[in-house]
Amino acid sequence: MPWQKPPSSHVSGVSFAAAGLTRGGKIRGVNEDAVLVQALSSSHLSDGAPGVQGDTSMHGIALGVFDGMGGSGVGDVASQLAAATVGDHLRRAFDRAVDVTAWAQALHEAMDAANQAIFRLGQADVRMRFGGAAAIVATVSGATLIVGHVDDGRACLLRGGKLTSLTRADHSLLAGLDLTAPVESLEELEAAARRWHAMATSGLGTKESIDVEDATFPLCEGDTLLLCTNGVELPDEQIAALLSRSDPPEELCAALDAACAAGEVFDDRAVVVARFSGDEWT
């Protein structure tokens, strides 16, 4: 769908309401996904429960879903560390990120910081060398949405009843390595970790440096943003129908989660929903 600028291309800020939810699937005993939903200001970082709201002329917003990899005690640690690091970095960038370019740079730096945090943890703890996290992170500058993407997951926008993907199709990895296979010694574990990293092409923490894909999108009145991990296996038509409801974001997250459960989705899942509005667009 071609992207059109809002009626006013100089909107200083838009109102937002956002919420997130994550739930473990039926494959593992531990949920390896994490969410980030934080309203930012120079002095405040919200806890994201059950949702946040504000205006981008006065507050920043940090949104993200993180799909951990590496198994119980590893993937969950990696995804939670990524979420915390990205949120903290964007909070500290709030005062200096004064325009779209600066916010995009701040998003890159935040994801780089998360990558380094997970990678350094792996250098100190051999089991964490299996750790990593796919990530979709979004923030807003004025009326411009900025999305950063590492590995798999999905970002999409509902506009005028039509759902449009903002990220490319899944480009995940690690199809050939059984991380559940037993190892007999520390040396075997280190060797397995080296094979894992040789196969990994992306994901926070999988390499000392990573490439962050990003793009910007002008927002319009009534836009609804969805970020989700691969555990949300629903057809676009169903997602669009759910997001078209007038319910608040936390209820939309619950509805998406319930739809996944009804469809017997087996993987962990994380969803973030944000809705945007503004008097300047009316």
3D architecture notes:
The protein is built from 5 helices and 11 strands. With 282 residues, the chain is α+β, with helices and mostly antiparallel strands. It has one domain: PPM-type phosphatase domain (Phosphatase 2c, domain 1), CATH 3.60.40.10. A 6-stranded antiparallel sheet has the order 3-1-11-10-7-8, with helices on one face. The protein has a 5-stranded antiparallel sheet with strand order 2-4-5-6-9, with helices on one face. A hairpin with a 2-residue loop joins β7 and β8. α1 packs antiparallel against α2.
Question: Could you give a short description of this structure?
Answer:
By secondary structure, the chain is α+β, with helices and mostly antiparallel strands.
What string gives the helices and strands in order? EEEEHHEEEEHEEHHE
What is the number of beta strands? 11
Shape: globular
Mean pLDDT: 78
Determine Rg (CA atoms, Å): 18 Å
Pick out the low-confidence regions. Answer: 1-11, 42-48, 170-186, 192-201
Portion of residues in beta strands equals 25-35%
| Estimated helix fraction | 25-40%
CATH architecture annotation name: 4-Layer Sandwich
For the record, the count of structural domains works out to: 1
Most strands sheet: 6 strands, antiparallel
| Number of helical regions | 5
CATH superfamily: PPM-type phosphatase domain
**Name of the level-1 CATH class:** Alpha Beta
The N- and C-terminal alpha carbons lie at a distance of 22 Å
At the third CATH level, what is the topology name?
A: Phosphatase 2c, domain 1
Label the structural class. Answer: alpha+beta
Strand order of the largest sheet: 3-1-11-10-7-8
